[in-house]
Amino acid sequence: DGVQIIRINRPQKKNALTSVMYRELISAFDDGDADPTVSAHVVFGLKGVFCAGNDIGEFLSFAQNGGMPLEAILAFLGKLPVIEKPVVAGVDGIAVGVGVTMLRHFDLVYASPESFFSTPFLDLGLVPEAASSLLMPRLMGHQRAFELLVLGEPFSADRARECGLINEIEPSSGLEERALSAANRLARKPPEALRLARRLLLGDPKNVLDRIKLEADLFRERLTSPEAIEAFQAFVEKREPDFSKLTKGD
Ligand code: COA
Predict the structure, then answer these.
(1) C-alpha distance across the termini of the chain, in Å
(2) DSSP for 81-104?
(3) How far does the centroid of ligand 1 lie from the alpha carbon of residue 191, in Å?
């Protein structure tokens, strides 16, 4: 019915995104944008998990030996502001890191009451990405964006709705149906009017792309910092990070 469903599906790692998955996501958005029978994209995760953010093992491999090219994630972040057709998402459960920041580029987001939204960039020695440093303060004001992105406070579904990050809370059992029905309604709108209206609401993507680039330069530097390496190693080794031995300026 004019809707393309993109499902993030890596249950064994809580839908953490790898380079391969970023490339597949980009292809899916490109294919749907180019397909005249598709009017809207819908992004789902799995029951209980939308996306646990970037694969931390890949981050560690990049930090230690440049093993993971960053191009795939950077290409995905650069794709988000220029997806041509509307995107609807259904979030059930865990949404972490880019699993949260990508939502700000979507048009309608429905989430189950069990969902929680967390962006622990700072705790990983990193900086916010996907233009979240620009778009989240615009959406929810500086203080609440600071709480989410810097303090790293997880937001419940209620808080996410209050902040404008999601449209509605829907029980997990009816979540996908709710998102699909909204996407179907979009698919029945006059396509050119829909395209123009969405572009007007989103505005010129240039500022957003510039911010993504600025963040990416810092993110790339931070990835190889001793702070980040300690945080990634701690995650992989299932222990608490210990930043106390790092000297100031690391
Ligand atoms: N990268 C790589 N692997 C991840 C991952 C990630 N971002 N998130 C989860 N996993 C893996 C775990 O290592 C574990 O793998 P294992 O079974 O081989 O040991 C598996 O997924 C299950 O995760 P677990 O931590 O046991 O599940 P949980 O339900 O207790 O917690 C999370 C889920 C998402 C809260 C927790 O895994 C987490 O905090 N992940 C890191 C999220 C993050 O910081 N992302 C990066 C943001 S920039």
Answers:
(1) 53
(2) GG--S-EEEEE-SEEETHHHHGGG
(3) 40
In short, whether 236's Cβ falls inside 6 Å of ligand 1 is no
Q: What is the pLDDT of residues 98-108, one digit of tens each?
A: 999 999 999 99
**Measuring from atom 15 of ligand 1, which residue has the nearest CA?**
13
CA of 231 to the centre of ligand 1 (A): 13
Q: Which atom of ligand 1 is nearest to the CA of 59?
A: 1
Q: What is the pTM of this model?
A: 0.96
Residue 242 Ramachandran class (φ > 0 left, ψ -120 to 50 alpha, else beta): beta
Q: Which atom of ligand 1 is nearest to the CA of 123?
A: 44
**Which residue spans within the chain are E strands per DSSP?**
3-7, 40-44, 49-51, 87-91, 94-96, 108-111, 116-118, 155-156, 168-169
89 Rama class: left (phi>0) / alpha (psi -120 to 50) / beta = beta
Give the residue among 40, 58, 163 at the shortest CA–CA distance from 100: 163
Residue 119 has pLDDT above 80, yes or no: yes
Q: What is the pLDDT of residues 58-71, one digit of tens each?
A: 999 888 887 567 89
Has residue 246 got a pLDDT over 90? Answer: no
Task: Determine whether the shortest distance from the Cβ of 56 to ligand 1 is under 6 A.
Answer: yes
Query: How would DSSP label each residue in 140-153?
Result: H-HHHHHIIIII-P
